[in-house]
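Let us work through a complete example step by step.
Step 1: write down the sequence.
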Amino acid sequence: MEQLQDGIRQQMPVGSVTQSNTPQQVAKSNGSMACCGVFDSKSQTLSSCFCYNVYKVFRMEGSVVRLQNIKLLIAALEYIESHLCDDIKTEDVAAACYCSKATLERLFRCVNRISVHDYVIRRRMMRAAKGLSDSPDKTVLEIALEHGYSTHESFARAFKQVWNCKPSEFRNRKYTELYPRIRMSLEIGGKGCVNRKQVDISELYDLFQERKNCYFVCCDIKNMVHLNRISRKAGDLAIIEAMNRMNQAAGENDMVFRIGGDEFCILTDSCEQAYAEQIAEKIRSWNEGTFSYEETQIPLYLYTTAVSLKQEWIKYNELFSGLHDAIVESKFQ
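Step 2: predict the structure and record it as tokens.
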């Protein structure tokens, strides 16, 4: 985090910061942000791993991409992740990143399609849910206090907003990180990452190293754009329903991961294709089943495929690309 902040400060124009300048004043004086360095996208030194939204938002003045904006979002994501149990507000994140609240909110919404506040709540509820799953001896109130909530009621409201169930009910479910950490990098990435929203799949990658010959079952929600047009809440409920179906179909030692906006995978504990195909077929059998949204039943269809990535060594980005390529291929089968 400190290195990123130093990098941001080093790109500020000479004389733009004085002892009387606040980060917000500097941002105002320099336009969109407290830095003015630019990055030539034609040089191809910027990561190809950014999703299309990132590329679109930062494509300014022809072929110029503002590198400092990407650094700002990386710094913001890291600050949020390290302060999830604190009572942080958007203003705190902006101040830590040396930019204005308006700038941070605008960039964050454009790239991640969610406000800083809502992202913080979702990530916090992921940690809380894992705590409920991993620590059955702790009370719900103890978990709430650990994550910055002073009462059981306020925690339960926030939890249900994300998970669509009470904290006490969640303890009977298998944990899946429904809203993984958003991942951005300045490193050159592998093929297939362009136009995709990347999330942190570190846990999946580590488990894959132990199960290199095991099969994946990959799923993608059909017509997710349409569901989000109904309402963002309808889209969130569709994601929860997809996760529930996959957890229900998976075996006891199989693990479900969310690997994109509306993409999931199950890393099985089996090297047998027939086992993975059986899980995939069970998920397909539930297609056109519905979920409830404001007293309306909405059908949900999942593209589903079983795949094995049998290679001697697969890099992090290659695993991400391989799973997404399998999902794309399943739509044409």
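Step 3: interpret the result. The chain has 15 helices and nine strands.
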